[in-house]
Amino acid sequence: MQFLSDNAAPVHPRLWDAMRAADAPDTPYDTDALSRELDARFTALFGRECAALWVATGTAANCLALATMVEPHGGVICHAEAHIEMDECGAPGFYLHGAKLLLADGEGAKVTPESVAAVLAGITRGVHQVPAQALSITQASESGLAYRPAELAALAALTRQHRLGLHMDGARFANAVAFLGCSPAAAAGPVDALSFGCVKNGGMGAEAVLLFDVEQAQRLRYRRKRAGHLQSKGRFLAAQILAMLDDDLWLDNARAANSAAALVAEGAGERLVHPQEINELFVAMTAPERAALREQGFSFYDWDDASVRLVTHWATDLDDARALGTAIARL
Amino acid sequence: MQFLSDNAAPVHPRLWDAMRAADAPDTPYDTDALSRELDARFTALFGRECAALWVATGTAANCLALATMVEPHGGVICHAEAHIEMDECGAPGFYLHGAKLLLADGEGAKVTPESVAAVLAGITRGVHQVPAQALSITQASESGLAYRPAELAALAALTRQHRLGLHMDGARFANAVAFLGCSPAAAAGPVDALSFGCVKNGGMGAEAVLLFDVEQAQRLRYRRKRAGHLQSKGRFLAAQILAMLDDDLWLDNARAANSAAALVAEGAGERLVHPQEINELFVAMTAPERAALREQGFSFYDWDDASVRLVTHWATDLDDARALGTAIARL
Amino acid sequence: MQFLSDNAAPVHPRLWDAMRAADAPDTPYDTDALSRELDARFTALFGRECAALWVATGTAANCLALATMVEPHGGVICHAEAHIEMDECGAPGFYLHGAKLLLADGEGAKVTPESVAAVLAGITRGVHQVPAQALSITQASESGLAYRPAELAALAALTRQHRLGLHMDGARFANAVAFLGCSPAAAAGPVDALSFGCVKNGGMGAEAVLLFDVEQAQRLRYRRKRAGHLQSKGRFLAAQILAMLDDDLWLDNARAANSAAALVAEGAGERLVHPQEINELFVAMTAPERAALREQGFSFYDWDDASVRLVTHWATDLDDARALGTAIARL
Amino acid sequence: MQFLSDNAAPVHPRLWDAMRAADAPDTPYDTDALSRELDARFTALFGRECAALWVATGTAANCLALATMVEPHGGVICHAEAHIEMDECGAPGFYLHGAKLLLADGEGAKVTPESVAAVLAGITRGVHQVPAQALSITQASESGLAYRPAELAALAALTRQHRLGLHMDGARFANAVAFLGCSPAAAAGPVDALSFGCVKNGGMGAEAVLLFDVEQAQRLRYRRKRAGHLQSKGRFLAAQILAMLDDDLWLDNARAANSAAALVAEGAGERLVHPQEINELFVAMTAPERAALREQGFSFYDWDDASVRLVTHWATDLDDARALGTAIARL
Hints:
Four copies of one chain form a homotetramer. Chain A has 331 residues and is an alpha/beta fold. Chain A is built from 14 helices and ten strands. Chain A is globular, with a radius of gyration of 20 Å. The mean pLDDT of chain A is 97. Chains in contact: A-B, A-C, A-D, B-C, B-D, C-D. Chains A and B meet through α3, α5 and α10 of A and α1, α3, α5 and α10 of B.
């Protein structure tokens, strides 16, 4: 019973069908009919004009989006635990040509207007320091917590005031929307760019970069090619993303994952490090307790000395989830 | 009847089967069983130790391989018509952090020891000029011509003498091997790294970077991650590549593509700009002649004012190929 | 008798005086009184608003200026013999983060509207090729020839049409102005940025970057600091530049250098590869002839198999120049 | 009475003399006699073989040195208050092509084996995190404190164990040696590279990069040229550095600066945030107290809400220093 990562989830059958259906001759790169459909579909979904481009990974999505906002001598404010800071092997430094990540604090891996303002307040030495040019936030955060629309509005007010671009890493955006129960637009707030995740939500190898500043799309297309991310059979990436949007599969998958997590959370009770909101749980646990769970057949990652991380996904068996919850309760 | 590009070919059924079979839980990134099989399979295929890593595109494969050989202040000698020079939107400049392409001449988009030596002879100003650190050649070349083993040996002698890395862009390596009728090892020669193409040969979105200097593998893994090319469900890329190798599917596909091209070449006769060797033909043709062919339902790219490019692939219908040959002969 | 390079010339006494005078306490970096004077002085000299910043070298000046015009995925059109292509060890690739130099032809190392248009016409493959974003020309050219105002106007019309930035490498701008006998503004034409050379003209280690798009100045200040070119005692660089402008010392020095070259040119006669315009001559000469001159005590660089390069400077002794002219005439 | 920065100090008369003496014809760049003398002089000074290259600024010195140790996908451990982190506008990101600074703690801006080990211990995620490849320390630190030889040995043991390069930012290395009263070699410890500062110590615009791994010198020469830091009249930089070494002027200047600081420190007494070791003092002071001092004609920088920074230099008038000490004592 695997609770390691939503990365490890199988590909959803409807995506397989869509990919097979895409295996007809069409023009290469992103000139095929499916790829050309993306802009309109996401514009409809978010209710505001956007350009939508596929890439294979979240790292590429995040960095290409940020590259439309940040110059090589600039900086990106993000949480100290953000994926771009902790898990991307310096990809922002590569894609942004040496631009710097400027780290902000915040409970539950969420930045706050105060913590962002504190970073900005530290930039006082003119050309001797890197100027902040963007804020990147993660919806839901690395701790599995979703920004509420009011929180997004407060951050966006700050970024407007300081002329910062606003980027959202949405590797688990679907889970955040499912939890918040609001529209995708409300869950995104007034971001300039959104990395719309699919891989963790039943995809194979496709994420969408959404640019609400559509003027930036051509720049991103050049950068995507230059990074070796313009796949020649891009129709298979477009097919995955479109299948996700059809009949809101992306939300159904996210709801399923969140529900499974809720079953685990019930059993975890007071052990939860953060309230359960999405499909990612952090549960306080001693080493012997971890061993006991693993002996019962549950696999998961150690997070730190005090806690483990448990992740569910669209295909997590609810009985397994219940079993894990019960097992934790019994520890 | 489509002769635009082998990029546009469908995915081979055996690759679909392999990908479906890979859709079982496994560990993420390249830690899965299939990805871990690659080194051994390519080592066996080439008869010398190599590290094999998947990436999604040939551009990424070429640039990541070159990044193991060339420093940011260095240069890469390549043919003036090489894909890395002409078609990758400056990707080498990105991946190599500003390193420079140093352009060599040669008939049929093949460099020669003389043309490479001429580039080297032009580097005389010490630190005022970029030092050459690698030679990148394309097997088969952009003009569809294969380097013979003796040609490879001569180039390798030169690179050894000048301590240059030797990289081979093998986007159509399969077609070259099929044409040469030699072993993969003989068609590669003593290269340090080979971009082993699959996408143009019936793949969906996977190429293999082969490093015969296996010490470089860890460096390339970091660079791959940093470039956003470490896909979390990498098992699907490994599955494609392994399926290609099973029972020499890669060679069968290449032979089929080459055979179709041969049928076209028969009709093209004296119009051939270069002898037909692989699945890519350049055929002298006037504008009215092009129009006439297109009216008969053939699609293809204009190459320049004097000629068109015709490309076949593993799934090209032999009747279509014959029909095109006949149509050209009748012009 | 040294005709190797104007690089090797001594520092003009008035610059020494100015530097000594600058050795009083002032605020560091470019906040001192002298540095703050530069904008106004160059604005007056060129008759249009500009921002003027000092750097130590022409390479830094050229690359920092280009970095205000060209994105990392972009390209700079320049002559195939331009200094940025041939003599800066890939500095443009470093400062522009991998952007590409796109090489144009032209007699005497001068590009023409036709040769620039030919480069532009070759960019046809959308995101697969680097888009041109700037044109960089050298006044006077690497062959010692000056662009006439009408030539500049024709090139500027083309750059405006294609929305390219226009940069001028003015390492020997003073010599060009002295030769043309026109105003600095006319010799610069409608460029967006000019690297205004001092080092070859009697300076020690200061060049001025002039930005006629003054909005770009703050960006360049960040980039200059980031490149380690914001010297803390910048007043000594400003002092050199201001002393050059005082009473048109820069023009007097250039005229002296040009005059010395004219004396050499007289003797060279038919051997001149290009007409003598500035302080740089290319003279056809066999190996034995070169040896004969060197035996007479003249030092100079071999240019290629057919010719040598002879360079004069502000302090070249006119008798030495005459002697060299005579010696060549006697060969 | 100016206590703002040693950056603002005048140039020492013996350096002026040396520069004037260098104003004779010689070959350009670093091929002149003075530049060629540097290796031997520093080898003698440190008692172990080193290559010594001039550059104009400490930022360039630090970054070029680090570029010999760190790959673009690597990381540099340094103190969170290090100059390369706080004051160089992201220059390490530029010169190292996106490599990351990994921040360590430590009292008085000095890292400790424990704080460095803590950074290393946090690198656990394989290719998902940047690997540490170098440690950069500052002698004396940003807080004006010198590493003792035993501290250097302990850090070097750690870097050897983890195969990290060891770089020393020696912008105030002279002041550290003067304070420690040991040999230059002992004050440097077994570093691989040292940025040997001159500008703050009476120089005009020259620092020396010392590479004790002399194999790296040619790489650094390419990188220096590529960064636009190979000045054509490099003899003037070499002249400054050599004059500094003659008769230990560098140590005399540093001792003078340190002595002036000691006079100030006497008056500051308990207000000293750190013990006075070199020419930089941090003194606790309220806003009204600062105003009072400024009214008496003393100029200095606010450091933070609690303290000010006071810096002396080789030419600081000892009466001024005493006066400042007295004024602080009277507050």
